[in-house]
């Protein structure tokens, strides 16, 4: 299985709620640089948090790649979601090539949990950072971090 984990691009500092924060111009540029790293990858699904900045990030990637399937929006990819629960959700998908679009602190914890088997040292995921993990199963400690790219 190949799993890519993308943190949303830079977002406005404030909005009515955290979920409503939108990408900045710089954030959109960051996402486009990260999306370019996914060109040619045989993704089966793009799955995103319902928060506006993650939806905007996923849409930019979707359009850049010319992806034909719609972006899937799920409630289990929000900033405070439990990384162990997310791993269970990924396993239930039964897919081999997946992109997740989410937020800190979840993305750092998720990368660490998948690679190291614990989230005590979260991966450093700045805005629009893209992690690529590979392994037979999406289980804690059983995936290998192949790349961690930062667009800036």
Automatic annotation (TrEMBL):
Pfam family of the protein (one): His_Phos_1
Gene Ontology CC: cytoplasm
GO molecular function, one term: protein histidine phosphatase activity
NCBIfam families, sorted: sixA (TIGR00249)
Protein name: Phosphohistidine phosphatase SixA
Gene: sixA
């Amino acid at each position: 299985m190949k799993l890519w984990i993308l943190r949303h691009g830079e977002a406005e500092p404030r909005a009515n709620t955290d979920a409503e924060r939108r990408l900045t111009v710089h954030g959109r540029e960051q996402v486009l640089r990260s999306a370019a790293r996914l060109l040619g990858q045989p993704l089966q699904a793009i799955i995103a948090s319902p928060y506006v900045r993650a939806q905007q990030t996923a849409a930019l990637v979707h359009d850049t790649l010319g992806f034909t399937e719609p972006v899937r929006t799920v409630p289990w990819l929000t900033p405070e979601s439990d990384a162990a629960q997310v791993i269970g959700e990924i396993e239930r998908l039964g897919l081999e090539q997946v992109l997740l679009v989410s937020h800190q602190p979840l993305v750092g914890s998720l990368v660490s949990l998948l690679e190291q088997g614990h989230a005590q040292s979260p991966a450093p995921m700045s805005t629009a950072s893209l992690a690529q993990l590979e392994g037979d199963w999406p289980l804690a400690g059983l995936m290998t971090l192949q790349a961690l790219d930062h667009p800036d």
